[in-house]
Structures are given as structure tokens and as C-alpha cells.
Amino acid sequence: MDVTMAILLALVLGLLMVKFALFPPRNPNSPPCIGGWIPWLGAAFQFGKAPLEFIEQARVKYGPIFTVFALGNRFTFVTEDEGIEAFFTSKDIDFEQAVQETVQRTIPAEIFYRNRSRLYSMMKGKMGTSSLYLFARPLCQELHEHMDCLGTAGTENLRDLIRSVLYPATVNILFGKGVCPTNKSDIKEFEEHFQKYDEDFEYGSQMWGNGASLANLLETLLQHLLDNLHGKHLAPNYALLLLWASQANAMPVAFWTLAFILSHPSIYKNIMEDIVSVFGKAGKENIEISEDNLKKLLLIKWCTLEAIRLRSPGAITKKVVNPIKIQTFTIPAGDMLMLSPYWVHRNPKYFPDPETFKPDRWKEANLEKNAFLDGFVAFGGGKHQCPGRWLAIMEVHMLVVLFLYKYEFILLDPVPKEVKYLFLLAHSAEATPAPHRPSVSAL
């Protein structure tokens, strides 16, 4: 009996020690913490079921700053002005440490830290607004080349339609001709690997070990940027990261932009009138689009930005490296500080009638000076915004112009709802492109 009691007492003490180790008494200055009764797992099950709904319910219940304990980590969410400003400007939080564990299987941590700033500066210079004119003509030519392969009419999955044109065009303008495979089976194999990389980033970081042909395919990517960087042998790995960065967002943004336009007949009609006013009757062969042409087609750019607003990711993260005070709370070092663009973009303080697709709200943005609307955080904030944001917007802008100029689109399926498809490219929406050209009858 004494032995049994000793064992039970030891178990109780052990459980108490685990509890205090994983769930220490809450500091009164810390944000409210949502945990769970299972050690280490915490609130992982509740959060994982429906993360966006979980975030919003927690905000309503606990206020603009709250912590979620899950899988042994503390995730502190900020949802209002002061927290958003701290997320983008504070020196006490760090992006690199937040992504280190994920990225280091593609790029070793020490080389990632050593090269990141130089790569960012290079890309910011090469993809900034002052350099867009260098991309406009080759991008237009590439889009035409791959669009010509589509034929004059047919029925296609909208996502696949966009991918078949935008993916090879982007690869060629960023990395040069000859990198993108031309054989259909090679393209299919590469896109399958790339889609897996996009859907499961950590799996993708092991891709080089899964197929030498893929590594060989990417050996030339970014070489002109990496010649002077440490770790030259990792050029294919850096190239894969940039390829992922350039494609993982541009393709879904193009999808949602077209889907929203096609599902709003009055907007579609106005856009077609704008396109005709710039290029003449729709359906002519291979028009050339300049930056000046795009500036005259602002409604499409507004549609792109509004699509980005409504379909932004659930959360972005940085790591707290020193305790940081936000409002009345002190966020301890080690927490992952989280910001949800999805919910910031649905704050009526910034975006009245936030659930409605309203491209004309972007009239208020000073886009001529490259300024977005207040509260728009899809590309980050502060001094480290996405360096390729303006190139990505131009890509989508030009793709939409060319598609709508060349084809008449009819949606066959309703546009998917945002919550269900937030983290996935929608698979159900299809469109029937029917040519404007009178020589071919519309479907």
C-alpha cells in the first residue's frame, strides 16, 4: 500500500510539474491565454478545426490582444492599430527567427541570415516601380506566347487556365528563357512538385533529395543574383524560394480577380468598355500593353487589390525576441506574434461594408505614389514590405487585360466561399472562354 501511494504521489507531483512547466501562472500583465486541458497540445484541436472563426471569436471574447497556447508554443494575436504598428515597426520582434525552422531545410540558417538582406535589396531594386518598364514588354510577349496555345474557345478550370499561362511567363521573365521545361510531360511533373511545395512548404524543402532532375532544372535560376553571395552551391535552393514567392500568391490573386470580375456583370461590362477605349474592338491579334496603357485601366487594378483584400492569408508571424509592451500588456520573449490580414481587412474602421467586393473603394488610395489604403497589410508593412508586390500586381493586371480582350468568359460554377477555400486554390470554378472574334462562334 505504501508503495502504491508513493507511486500515485509521484504521478500527481509529476503532472503538477508538467502543468506548471507548460502552463505557468499567468502574469497579470500578459494577454489572456487560451489553452486546453491536454498538456502541450493546448488549444490545437479547437484552433485547427476552423482557425479564422477561432481568431474572430477569441477577439470578440478576449479583446484585441490574446494568446493561444498550442503544440507547445504561444501565439499572441494583435488585431488593432497599436498592435499592428508594433508588428511592423518594433525592433523587439524578428521575422527571420520566426521562419528559420521552416526555411533552414532549404537554406541553412547561417547562410539565410547572411544573404537575406542582400537578396532583399537586390530584388527591391530590380522589381521596384522604377524598373517595371523593363518587365512590361517581355511579360506581354510571354503572356501572348502561352495564351496562343489555348486555342480560340473551350471549357477549362479557371485555376488551371491561369496557371498554364502565368507560370511559364513568370519563370521566363524572372529567370530567363530555357529554364521552363517545354515538354508537356516535364511541365506537368514540375508543376506537380511545385504545387506540393506550395501546399506543404516543409515537404517542399526536401524536394532536392527527391529528384535530381528537378535540381538540375533549377540550377540556372537566379545565378545572376547569387554569383556574389555566400553559399553559391545553394543557388537552386534560393531559386526555388523565389519561384515559390513569385507564384504562390500571384496565381491565386489572378484567379480571384477574374472570378470576382466575372461574377459581377456590371463591373465586367465597365471593364470591357475601358479596354475597348484603350485598344479598340476586342479580339484583335496580340496587342502590346505598356505601363501607360495599364494606368488607363485603373478599374482592373482596383479589382486586383480588392481581390487581394478579400482573400488575404489567415495569419502572418514574427518572433518576440525581447519583451514588448502593447497597450496594457507585456508580450514575453519567445512568443510568436501573429497578425491576421484576413481579419484586419474586414475591420469596418478601415473598410466599410468589408464583406462586399467594392473595387471603387480604391479610388481613395494614392496609387500614383504607390500607397495603399490604411489597414491594407497583404504585402506587409514598414520598411520590409514584399519587394515584388508591384511586379505581381502588374502581372495580374496585364494577364486580366489580355484574357478579357481575347476571350469572352462565362462562369459555369458559382465563385467559392472565402472561408472554405482560404488556404487552397479553388477547384470548382470553371469558365468557358468564347472568342470575341466574329469568325468563330461563341459557345
Describe this structure in words.
Heme binds at residue 386. Helix content is 51%, strand content 10%. With 443 residues, the protein is an alpha+beta fold. It has a domain at 108-308 and 381-435: Cytochrome p450, CATH 1.10.630. A six-stranded mixed beta sheet has the order 1-2-3-9-6-4. Helix 8 (158-175) crosses helix 15 (250-262), helix 15 (250-262) packs across helix 20 (389-406) and helix 18 crosses helix 20 (389-406).
Brief sketch in words of this structure:
This protein is an alpha+beta fold. The protein has 20 helices and 11 strands.
Secondary-structure blueprint:
Layout: H1 2-22, E1 33-34, H2 44-49, H3 51-62, E2 65-70, E3 73-78, H4 81-89, E4 93-94, H5 95-103, H6 109-126, H7 132-147, E5 156-157, H8 158-175, H9 184-199, H10 201-204, H11 207-210, H12 212-217, H13 223-226, H14 235-247, H15 250-262, H16 265-279, H17 291-295, H18 298-310, E6 316-320, E7 324-326, E8 329-331, E9 336-339, H19 341-344, H20 389-406, E10 407-411, E11 430-435
Parallel strand pairs: 1-2, 3-9
Antiparallel strand pairs: 2-3, 4-6, 5-11, 6-9, 7-8, 10-11
Helix pairs in contact: 7-8, 7-20, 8-15, 15-18, 15-20, 18-20
